[in-house]
Amino acid sequence: MCFVLAGFMIMERVNQTSSVSEFILLGLSSQPQDQKPLFILFLTMYLVTITGNLLIILAIHSDPQLQTPMYFFLSFLSFTDICFTTTIVPRMLLSFLSEKTISYAGCLTQMYFIYVLGNTDSFLLVVMAFDRYVAICDPFHYVTTMNHHRCVLLVAFSCSFPHFHSLLHTLLLNRLTFCDNNVIHHFLCDINPLLKLSCSSTFLNEIVIMSEGSVVLVTPFVCITFYSLRNKDLKQGLRKLMGRRKS
């Protein structure tokens, strides 16, 4: 629903104002002799990434012993990594061969999904850290606490909340005016290079990036750090307790 709304407003914006209908992605190198080696390198890395994550998903779903919350979250993390990589790499490979231009709507669509999938990765890592925290700190209630219904809700939250974050930045970027300069010094459509190309005020965008963006980025990191430190302290306490019992 968020993506449909964003797409509609982006297309409406293209039809109404902008003198820029497409952007040029300069990529990693502008030297012609570098394009084929870079294409082979990133194609190989892309295939290895996709294959590795697919093997993880297949291994988890084919082994009944791996049907636990930890591997349930890991399979979704692997799927998100596949989607995130596919959002960036195929378009970058195309720019190595010939086409370096990307439409206005295509650029904002890529940026939208980069932020959605990148933040989904972060929130899934928080959920996985919480899962380990419950397993270590409250092992007797782990099965009831991390039941299948709750695991599905945690994954649903991790996948849905980033859409609001991404939609906010996409719509705020969509209200800007882009004039003659349409060259992006990057291999993907990111918000900072696009803000530099705008010929209208970007004050509101920068305020939102510093406030809302910082909260969305810092919160998962703080949660992961907190759960990791608690797990580490508990493990050290258990080691000391076992050592005293042996002595």
From TrEMBL:
Classification via InterPro entries: GPCR_Rhodpsn, GPCR_Rhodpsn_7TM, Olfact_rcpt
Domain G-protein coupled receptors family 1 profile: residue ranges: 52-247
For this UniProt record, the keywords arranged alphabetically read as follows: Cell membrane, G-protein coupled receptor, Membrane, Olfaction, Receptor, Sensory transduction, Transducer, Transmembrane, Transmembrane helix
Q: Where do the TM regions start and end?
A: 38-59, 71-92, 112-130, 151-168, 207-229
Concerning Gene3D superfamilies, the annotation shows: Rhodopsin 7-helix transmembrane proteins
Record's Pfam families?
7tm_1
Localization per Swiss-Prot or TrEMBL: Cell membrane
- What are the protein's GO molecular function terms? G protein-coupled receptor activity; olfactory receptor activity
Membrane topology (UniProt): Multi-pass membrane protein
Q: GO CC terms for this protein?
A: plasma membrane
Family assignment from sequence similarity: Belongs to the G-protein coupled receptor 1 family.
What exactly does this protein do? Putative odorant or sperm cell receptor.
Descriptive protein name: Olfactory receptor
- Organism whose genome encodes this protein: Puma concolor (Mountain lion)
